[in-house]
Amino acid sequence: MSICVLGTPFKLRKSNKPLPAPLPILTSLKKIGDPYSYGNFSLDHCFAAAEAAPTGSIDDFKAASKFLFTYQGSSATFTSYRRELERFLQWSWRIEKRSVFTLKREDIERFIRFVIAPPTDWIGEKNAPRVIRKGDDEHPNPEWRPFVQTQRRKGNIDTAASYQPSQASIRATFAVLSSFYDYLTEEDLVESNPVALIRQKSKFLKRDQDQAVVRRITNLQWDYVIETAEQLADLHPKIHERTLFVMNCLLAMYLRISELVADERSTPLMGDFRKDQDSHWWFHVTGKGNKDRTIAVSNAMMRALRRYRLSRGLSALPTLGEKNVLIPKARGNGPINSTRQIRRIVQDCFDAAYARMKEAGLEDDAHDLRAATVHWLRHTGISEDVKLRPREHVRDDAGHASMATTDRYIESDRRERHASGRKKPIKDL
After folding, report:
1. Could you tell me the domains of the chain?
2. How far apart are CA 103 and CA 111, in angstroms?
């Protein structure tokens, strides 16, 4: 099988002579620890018995760990950068069998082609944790893969052979690698940034005169999703009042998934809901880029907050400086500190809503729920609000850096363009 990116075919590696499924190299920030205090250590745990670490790999690992350590203030950034560096180290060590310090421009181009069409044995069909934890011990998870094909269509999981990264994913690979080599250059570990020397990135990336379509669920799908969450909360309040509140937060306040979990930057607390001198409620959050922002809390969101708090045995409204965590773990009182747990909560609700729509004979209408992600709820909330509210108000609540980002959610231009083009004749011009 081959994938064609702007006319350039990239052959998928066949499985008749498979590369062994790799073991993870970069784990959690806590496990990596302070890379500036590393002593002598081995990377044998990253390799299968038949493999050997290439010369220079320990220096690569130290440099990558120090680079990631600079992003310890943002778990979302750390996670995305770790993903790209993990793939890069896996390829450099296992495919090229070389240190990243020795790679040149043409090697980086070869890596990008590898990312576009990785070997099928390196592609998983579900998100799996890197390690399995048993008490204080960690063991590599045999189901983990550097690449994941999770797109689901009509209830089926696509096979690894259908994997194809998005343009945004390829851009992210370029961006992270360039940032990494900038760091290596500043540390005098390499002479120049080979990524910056690639002049024809256009052969990997394409431009489109249209903005990418904003991925969202429909109003009908949302009606079923929130009704499903409410039914679950009524049946099993101890478990699903939290589900209902999470779904409301993601849509009504356009929260990013990272803004609901505790990390090195902050822990979301009930006290982050604050009333101003005009008795207006605001939600204070530390978001993307470590930036603080306030979000106007609607009356409907306040009703959702009251219900959630009462279900937890708290007063109806938060008190000033309240330290109760916003989204607690299912067991214990500590905060959820993994985006994976929030994704699981949302995905279970999507799956249950899909089943209800299917039973109601609305399988076609429910179709996108099989591919929807947590972030679609943020997109849906913003898309609905720009129809009713001033754009600059939506921009500030969403934490967009510019109005141009908010304008992506305005669909009227596309609707009008299609309406004007729908009646174009072919005959009788």
Report:
1. 2-203 (no CATH), 219-415 (1.10.443.10)
2. 10
